[in-house]
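G., the chain you wanted modeled:
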Amino acid sequence: MARKITVNSIVVATKDQVSADLSGEAAILNLKSGVYFGLNAVGASIWKLIQEPRSVNEINDALVQEYDVDPDQCEKDLLALLEELLSKELIEVTNEKGP
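Predicted structure as tokens:
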């Protein structure tokens, strides 16, 4: 059963990937599937943050401080990106409050 990512979830980049900074953007290669995934500048900022385990709340707070963005919209967009990264097996998710 797939885990649902919430604001309390802890996310971290999986070990089965390599990534590179491309002039502020990021390219990620899933080593299991051989599929590349690209991120724009904001996505690359998120990718840098999740090289260490962080809560979604921590990531959202960092983005709101760095960019001129509504916190609620930022949270929605962040959760959508994290769900996509999870579906591509590029991140691992644990939930602080259980499954």
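Residues 9-95 form a domain with the Outer Surface Protein A; domain 3 fold (CATH 3.90.930.60).

Shout if anything looks off.
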